[in-house]
Amino acid sequence: MSANIVWDQAIIEKYNYSGPRYTSYPTAMEFNDSFGMTELEAAAARYPERPLSLYVHIPFCHKLCYYCGCNKVITRHQSKADPYLDYLELEIKRLAPLFAGRTVTQLHWGGGTPTFLTEPQIRRLNGLLREHFHFAEQGEYSIEIDPRKIELSILDVLKEVGFNRISLGVQDFNKAVQQMVNREQDNDFIKTLVTHAAKLGFRSTNLDLIYGLPLQTPESFQHTLKEIVALKPARLSVFNYAHLPSRFAAQRKLNEAEMASPANKLLMLEQSINFLTEQGYQFIGMDHFALPDDSLAIAQNEGKLHRNFQGYTTQGECDLLGLGVSSISMMGDAYSQNKKDLKEYYAQLDTLGHAQTVGYALNKDDCLRRDLIKTLICNFELEFAPLEAEYEINFADYFAEDLKLLQTFIDDELVTLSDTGIKVTLKGELLIRNICMCFDVHLRRETRMRQFSRVI
Fold first, then answer.
1. What confidence tens digit (pLDDT) does each residue in 30-43 have?
2. CB 91 within 8 A of CB 324
3. Which of 19, 122, 295, 359 could cross-link to 35 by cystine, CB 3.0-4.6 Å?
4. For 114, left (φ over 0), alpha (ψ -120 to 50), or beta?
């Protein structure tokens, strides 16, 4: 893979419109209630030889971060997690028999804030999962951490129960920015957490940053990046803040007048990419970076990188089972989502014994376009022959209309098209979402652009 991208300001501004992030194709906008538990069970049985990835959603947070668009419940009372674990136990016992004989090779606890849980609660949930699923000894087991509300000793507990990767939500080291978004944290303690994780032998540490928050400037964000790189995290996620106050009420507390201009946001991104690649990080795509010896970078270099609802992943051949409120599964050739509201999640488990509510079964065309988009977004290139062989098509004929849409990107030297494949140029890598949109037939059928964030 390339060590860098080519930044073309005029081209980026031309194509900086809204579009999906393609953590799935079709996107969650297509989910509907015609897909039920019967369909989920059939999807779970379709590829019984596949390994299993588990995602567990913990919705609780101690404090509201004003920028956040996640599914969450704000409370200071950790005891509220006890009934949630009771219901997770019901869900686990209901679904685990569908995967008897499968091996879990990947686990991720997300949120909300998974480390909202106390040590006994962490041990209880981990025990439930280990009791009802078979785990590989050398899997990828990760957890998201809020560094504001965690004792250093909890890292020891997490390592003891089997986690080998952690992800810290840092966002920004600038105190004024932290105060503005209601997320004040101890920067020195974050550094201590990263150092202690390395001593304990955690395989990888990821740090999340956000650019475009109120009071951020290109200069202040560059200072944060320098402090972050000094910690040498294996992975970095540098997200564009998507201001969608009509969808996320907490964002209405932020003053748009104090946010960076579109030009300064682009400058922050440009500086971030240039600085991080100069420091030895590989630009994985969109907003992800990894050191060359990290498994994410290795997977991309070997053409084995994949993408799901957690973003880029090395475990693409797994079926993904989501547990907990709002969680999403990618099972067989289908997607399924649980109830999004906590009370409704509890109520449906009480009445039906499961929390599944909507989903989508992919047809052959969906599967073909899913494979195409995933290959492009992970590897920045696509050979026609494998898809032609698997789906018994002639690429040029089947995608004739799509290739017409791609022509503008070819004209702008963002993509090269040959008789055998498509290759995204260094100038086009930042606009990979736009390029993938050319092949999104669902997006063409319906005007849904306003539902998505800008691509940059």
1. 999 999 999 999 99
2. yes
3. 359
4. alpha
